[in-house]
Specification:
The protein is α/β, with parallel strands linked by helices. Helices cover 26% and strands 25% of the residues. The protein has nine helices and 14 strands. Strands 3-1-4-6-14-13 form a six-stranded mixed sheet. Strands 7, 8, 9, 10, 11 and 12 form a six-stranded mixed sheet that branches. It starts with a helix and ends in a 16-residue tail after the last helix.
Length: 321
């Protein structure tokens, strides 16, 4: 087969890469949601007691975005994470998450129509911790306005939010896309800003969220390429409802471990002694892929095709040694 392709195309084959099983690299947005749902741990197995797993429920919005926000949480041995499709499934959760969305207004309407909105308000009154990320954060506010029709084919629209955080959002035509780093400003779930609360992540959203009277930012962030810090997100007076624009918030091992410790304490679960080192494990998987490619491909041939950019003086390009 290789000889036939080389003959027909007149190009050399640089290698044949065999399938590499169980690589578990971060996946393309939305591709593997079905697989994630099929392997979720069952919450009805009768597991009880203070040492059981922390049950984190992610609301499975129809237009959910940035699925990888939850992969690091799901890898923790002390966590049982599930994507929830029915309001009644939230009853067994210790902590709930509203994820990002590609169509925030449509998904907000879906929450109301499906019965999730009413259920989330009841759980809020009962003190169940609730986190909103990006579009989920916007939904937690008092309203979302779309004056330019960003999500509605040019037709302006607006919708009331869940009203659990004193913020409102206006969608703009320009998208914010930045790498960020930050740290908590306000206490949430008993996690104090003076503890290990530094994190890294990224913003990718349209819209600007405005603080209403009584609002408290949850963090201060610094955006790559921009000097100074800006407030991010919001947190309720109880510290049990918080929203943020930062995706990848839980990828940092130290921050995730501190957050989960606080979350377990907030719902009367015992501390855990076993943690996943997601960053180290991810690097090991990437190294495994790199070694596999290096063994399978003619790296010297590929390197011989890489050239330096042509200089302004018109000098000829030359291969990189």
């Amino acid at each position: 087969g290789v000889s036939a392709m080389e003959s027909r195309l007149g190009l050399p084959c640089v290698g044949d890469v065999p399938h590499l099983p169980d690589l578990r690299l971060d996946e393309e947005d939305g591709v593997a949601l079905t697989d994630r749902a099929s392997v979720k741990r069952c919450w009805s197995n009768g597991e009880t007691g203070p040492n059981r797993a922390l049950r984190i429920g992610v609301i499975a919005l129809p237009h959910m975005a940035n699925f990888t926000d939850f992969d690091a949480l799901a890898m923790e041995p002390s966590v049982s994470l599930a994507f929830l499709e029915q309001p009644e499934e939230t009853a067994a959760a210790d902590l709930l998450v509203l994820p990002g969305s590609k169509q925030t207004l449509d998904d907000l309407e879906w929450l109301d129509r499906r019965g999730f909105a009413r259920k989330l308000r009841r759980l809020y009154e009962a003190g169940i911790p609730l986190i909103g990320i990006c579009g989920g954060f916007q939904m937690l506010g008092s309203s979302i306005e779309d004056p330019h029709g960003i999500e509605n084919q040019g037709k302006s629209s607006s919708r009331k939010g869940l009203g659990l955080l004193p913020v409102r959002t206006v969608l703009h035509t320009e998208k914010t896309v930045r790498r960020v780093q930050g740290c908590l400003r306000s206490e949430c779930l008993g996690l104090s800003p003076c503890q290990e609360t530094h994190f890294q992540g990224y913003e990718i959203h349209v819209g600007e969220t405005f603080y209403e009277p009584g609002a408290r930012p949850v963090a201060d962030i610094m955006r790559r390429g921009i000097s100074g810090s800006v407030p991010d997100g919001a947190v309720s007076a109880s510290g049990r409802v918080l929203g943020t624009y930062v995706h990848g918030l839980f990828d940092n091992d130290d921050f995730r471990h501190a957050f989960l410790t606080a979350a377990r304490r907030a719902v009367d679960l015992a501390p855990t002694q076993t943690w996943a080192n997601v960053n180290a494990e991810r690097e090991a998987r990437i190294d495994r892929l790199a070694d596999h490619l290096r063994e399978s491909l003619n790296i010297d041939l590929i390197k011989s095709w890489i050239v330096t950019p042509r200089s302004r003086g018109g000098n000829q390009v030359r291969p990189i040694p």
